[in-house]
Request: fold
Amino acid sequence: MFTFSMSSVFSLRYAPLAIGALLMASTGCVTIEDPGYADSRSGGGSFGDDDDDDDDWTGDDDDDDANNIGSIGDCAGYYAGNYAGALNGGVDGYLNQDGSLELEFYVEGDVMYGSGQTSSSGAIVGSSSGLIAIDGELDFSDCTATGSWSSNYAGSGSWTVFPD
Reply:
């Protein structure tokens, strides 16, 4: 007499699957690999991925420059450059993490100050509270900034600064 138990039903139910997997593995048709985690705790990517590339489950490509243009925080720091127009000279400045930009325009032993606020799009909108009003654009790809300046006392012109 033959008796069925739940364990024998379970075994019979999955036996064809187990046999098929063993046959495929023995013929070299399949590679079984730990898929890993998207946060790089272990493993490296998707099933069957046997290269050393840093693949992840989200499909993000950290090397894609089009997606990594930059931000104000990436460009924060000291700047130096020059200005031209009615007057010519050197410019020093600092871009803060919050986007505020302070520029110092050097004129024949004197300094004129201009300030502006940089938006997340890179637009620099100046304040007219200083001796020089500025506006311009911050290029996130190389952190250079260019713009125009104007003053009631000294005329107007253009300016360019680079990370220092």
